[in-house]
């Protein structure tokens, strides 16, 4: 299997900045971005405080940065990273493939949601983050699905075609199309306003508990916009909901770096690209001697 | 005396980025820049790795960043900062004036030279960094002057008009105009290639020691491009020759931040502007509650 020098998880300003710097230093780079290269920044009407550019729209900024980065030819994988396993090299599992890299930079953006109690403990024992990976384990079973991004609509459809019943929980600000919701099979019960409080179970998932009551289920899928970093990397040390990093964007694991919003506030473009660059220097140095 | 919210020492990418962010947050800002807003970057023919700008010359980048920052109207002081005194507020002494600020960001760029043995111990007892401040103490005395930037030619002329003799040491890569050197008074002895090893003295300066020998002097002026940060701020903790900073660009003194090249490698524009922004967030928060 190809071992890349550097794997970058996320293609927002931090991830692309890291890719740019790493490629300038002639390292092999694979960058994972399943959505639209910072959907968040693409919603920004106007950026006035990015040093060196008087004013620019979010989409124009991302397009320029993407063009600039792609000119250095990093490998781009339009796949969703499910897990990063610590090792030499690191192993990166997506919803489609497995990759290896000497060094990894997490640039997954701001974490919109925390994990809920029981979620981590029951991961792989009924809790899953990947419909296409694990959906078939739940054929004709009762499951719960939490979704907070439009990007996962197809995954809900897949699960609906497999499971006996689905209790579907819709996260925070997400607006799912009325028509799409209306066309879901009757086996899907939509809870538009419920808040998921915990996953219940000892050896395996037995129920999901919300502010509207408890439902017995065999499995729970969390389909989140940005995966909480502790779900991506087992044992990564956090500072609040962000990945804890040192002066050079290093995490508690050697060779693993974090940059941009996932590494904490302020949630700003200049800070993100600066950190992406800093993390890339660290990863370049690490990949050179490992 | 006006107490500014934030004083920024240095007007390169880090300093201007910090000023931009601080002004966007409506804090009063004074920025000190005596030279040309990053003379170093202005010598860069071409920058290809600044995220979001495909390619740009160093001077064009600095001009754009300066225009963008000045639109937010920070106060600019074209004065050279000699010392920052820790306190609430901080006191900033330049070669012309004294200022106060609740918070200070050091963005003085890369330190080209280290201090030499004896220099710090004899500061104020014969060692000086400021010709216009201290020159008159050395009327008709024998002094040594170290210079490593064209910006200090006038200071040498001033000292030549006061002192009895000057041993003039020219630093590293500095090319002083032949004609200017030829027109210096005979009391100035130019050592074009000598390396200053130490300042000698117990209670006060008695001599300067170089690789070409020792000269008895009453005082030594170090006129450096970028003042080593430990000369600007007594007791600031270093990491090698850089200011030691934490995750949020904080130094060992509360309210004092550092950003850009002075805070260490990599010496890159994106890293510098990101750190300037990060330091500004810290300074804004500090100034808001102090």
From TrEMBL, chains A, B:
Name of the protein in question: Thioredoxin reductase
Record's keyword annotation contains Flavoprotein: yes
Domain annotation FAD/NAD(P)-binding: ranges: 4-142, 188-276
Lineage of origin: Bacteria, Bacillati, Bacillota, Negativicutes, Veillonellales
A GO molecular-function annotation: thioredoxin-disulfide reductase (NADPH) activity
Record-annotated membrane-spanning stretches: none
EC number(s) reported in the record: 1.8.1.9
Pfam families for this protein: Pyr_redox_2
InterPro entries attached to this UniProt entry: FAD/NAD-bd_sf, FAD/NAD-binding_dom, Ferredoxin-NADP_redctase_2
Organism: Veillonella criceti
Entry keyword set: Flavoprotein, Oxidoreductase
């Amino acid at each position: 299997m190809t071992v890349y020098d550097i794997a970058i998880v996320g293609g927002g300003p931090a991830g692309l900045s890291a890719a740019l710097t790493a490629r300038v230093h002639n390292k092999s780079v694979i960058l994972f971005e399943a959505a639209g290269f910072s959907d968040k920044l693409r919603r920004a009407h106007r950026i006035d405080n990015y040093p060196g550019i008087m004013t620019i729209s979010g989409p124009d900024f991302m397009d320029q940065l993407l063009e600039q980065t792609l000119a250095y030819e990093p490998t781009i994988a339009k796949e969703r990273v499910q897990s990063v396993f610590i090792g030499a090299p690191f192993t990166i599992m997506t919803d489609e493939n497995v990759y290896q890299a000497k060094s990894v930079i997490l640039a997954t953006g701001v974490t919109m949601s925390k994990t809920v109690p029981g979620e981590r403990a029951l991961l792989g024992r009924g809790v899953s983050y990947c419909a296409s990976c694990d959906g078939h384990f739940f054929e004709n079973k009762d499951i719960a699905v939490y979704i907070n991004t439009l990007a996962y609509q197809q995954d809900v459809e897949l699960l609906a075609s497999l499971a006996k019943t689905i209790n579907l929980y819709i996260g925070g600000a997400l607006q799912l199309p009325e028509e799409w919701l209306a066309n879901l099979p009757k086996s899907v019960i939509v809870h538009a306003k419920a808040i998921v409080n915990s996953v219940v179970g000892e050896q395996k998932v037995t129920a999901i508990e919300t502010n509207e009551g408890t439902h017995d289920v065999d499995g729970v899928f969390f389909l989140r916009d940005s995966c909480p970093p502790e779900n991506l990397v087992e044992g990564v040390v956090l500072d609040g909901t962000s990945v804890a990093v040192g002066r050079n964007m290093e995490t508690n694991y050697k060779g693993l770096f974090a940059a941009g919003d996932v590494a904490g506030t302020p949630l700003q473009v200049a800070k993100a690209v600066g950190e992406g660059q800093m993390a890339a220097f660290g990863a370049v140095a690490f990949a050179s001697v490992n």
